[in-house]
Amino acid sequence: MANPTMVAARAGWTRGVIELRQTFTNGQDLFGQLFWPAAMLVTMYFMRDAELGSSGLMLGTVVLPSILGMNVAFNGLLGMSQLLAVEREDGTLLRAKATPNGMLGYLIGKIVTVSGGLIAGLLIVLLPGSLIVDGLDAGSPASWAILLAVVVLGLVATLPIGAILGAVVASPRSLGLITLPIVGLVAISGIFYPITGMPDWLQWVGQVFPIYWLGLGMRSALLPDGAVVVELGQSWRHLETFGVLGAWAVLGLLLAPAVLRRMARRESGSSVAERREKAMQRVG
Amino acid sequence: MVSNDTVVVDVDGLRMRYGTHDVLHEVNFQARQGEVLVLLGPNGAGKTTTIEILEGFRMRSAGRVEVLGADPATGDERWRARLGVVLQSWRDHGKWRVRELLAHLGSYYSCYSTEGIQRPWDADELVGLVGLTPHADKKIKTLSGGQRRRLDVAIGIVGRPELLVLDEPTAGFDPQARREFHDLLHRLADDHATTILLTTHDLDEAEKLADRIIILAGGRIIADGSADELSRRIAGESEVRWSVAGQHFVHLTAESTRFVHELFTEHGAAIADLEVRRASLEDTYMTLVRQAESGQDEAAQAAARKLEAVA
After folding, report:
1. pTM for the whole thing?
2. How far apart are the first and last CA of chain A?
3. Which end of chain A has the smaller Cβ count within 10 Å, N or C?
4. How far is A11 from chain B, CA to nearest CA, in Å?
5. Sequence spans of domains, chain A
C-alpha cells in the first residue's frame, strides 16, 4: 500500500500546479501577477539614465536586482499570508482538514503555488528589465547559481514566517497590519535607495530583516564585481547573508508547525460560519 | 435496510461547556451501521456542536464519544478517511472545476482502500451520481446554490465513507433537488451500508429520511425514536373530522377510537366524510420542544428562587 504521506505530498504538488495554472489562465489573477512587475519595469525605465552618486553605476542597474530580492520577500511573506487568511475564511482550509492528510497536501500545494508564482514573477521582471538597464552581469553560471541559492534560501526564510502571519491574522481585512510594516521595511532595506544613505540606527534595523539581505544577495548575483563599492563594508557579505536568512528560516520552521497546528485545530464548520457572517456584515 | 448491530457512533454522557454555560448536558445516543439518524431541534439546541464533536473538529468537555471505533478527539488520518463530512460551504475552491476538484480530493483516499471498500469514488461516476455531469467541467463559482450543495455532498462521499455526517445539507434546495438528494442518501444507506447522521430543520425531510430521529432542545435529548414511535409516544391528540347531514365537524381527542365508536352509536349511518388523523411529526415536535422549553423555564425560575432565598 502506498505511503499516505507520499500520497498527500503528490496530491499537494498536483494541487500547486493546478492552482498555478489557474493563476495564469484567468484575467483577474493574471492582472495581479503582471501589474507590479509592469510598474517596476516602468520605474526602471525612468531611472535608467540616473547615475548612482559618483560610483559610475546606473541607478536602474542597481535597483533591478534589488527589486527581485524584494519580490522574493513579498511572495514569501505577503503572498503566503494572504492565501492562508483568505482560504481560512472561505472554507478551503476546513475542507483540507476534513480530508485525510489534507492539511499536508494543502501546505505543499501553497508552497508550490507561491514558489512557482515567484519564479514566474522574477522572470517577468528580469527578462525585459535586462533590456532596459545596462551593466548587468547576468550571463555567467556563477551568477545564476547565486541567484538560485538566494531564491531558495529566501523562500525557506520567508514562507514559514508568511504562513505564521497568515495563521495569526484575524481576517483577510486585517492583512493591512502585515502589509504596512513590510512596505515600511522595504523603504529602509536599500531596495530603491542605498542603505548607506540611511542613519546608522536605521541601517541596523534594516539588517535585522530578510529584505535587505535578499536585495544584497540578488545584487551580488547580477551586478559586476565593481559594484560592490556602494555596499556596506564594500563587501557582498555572502556569509552574513546566509547567516541572517538562515536564522529566519530556522526561526520560521521552528514556530510554523505549532502555529499552523493551532490554527488547524480551531477550524470547524461553526468557526467558518461565524467568519462568513462577519464578512457578510461588512459587505451588507 | 442493511442496518445491523455494529455500533458506529456511541455517545455517552456527552457534555459541552463554554465558560460557565452548558450547551450540551448528558447527551446519550447510538447509531448502528446503515442507519439514517436525523438530529432535529430548534436553533441553538446544540445540533452543530454535537456533530462537530463527532467529526473531531471540536473538543468536548466531558463524556465518552466513540465514532467508528475511535475517540474523534484523537482519531488519526486512517480514521478520518472512513468519515465523510458535508460542510456548509461558502465559496472555497471557486476557481476549480467540478470534476477536477473531486478527482483531486479523492486522490488523498487512494491509500486507504480496504478489502471491502475501494477508495476513492471514481470522479466521473460521482459527478453523475449527484447529477452534475453537464457541469463537470464548469468552474465551481459558476454553479447555482443547489448545484454547489450537490457538489458538497459529492465531496463528502468521495472517499466512500462508512459514516457520513451532514449539517443542514438541503438548505436552499428546490423540491426536485431535495427529492434527488433523499434518493441518493437512501441509496448510500441501503447499497453501501453507509451510516448517515444529519441535522435539519425540516420535519418533512426528517420523516422521509430517518430510521431514527433524535430531538435536541436546550442541549438535551428530549426524544429518540422512529417518526412513528415519537408520534405514538406523545399522547398526542388526534383530529377527528366528520359530517352529519351536510354539516362538518372537527374534534380533538386523545382517544379517537372510543370517540368514533360513540359517534357511530349516536348517528349510525348518517356519518359521512370520516377522517381520523393522528398527531403529525410536526405536532409531536412542537409539543416536545414546548414542553422542554417550559421545563427549562421552570428550572430556571426554581434556581432563581433558590438564589433569592440564599441572598
Report:
1. 0.88
2. 51
3. C
4. 7
5. 4-272
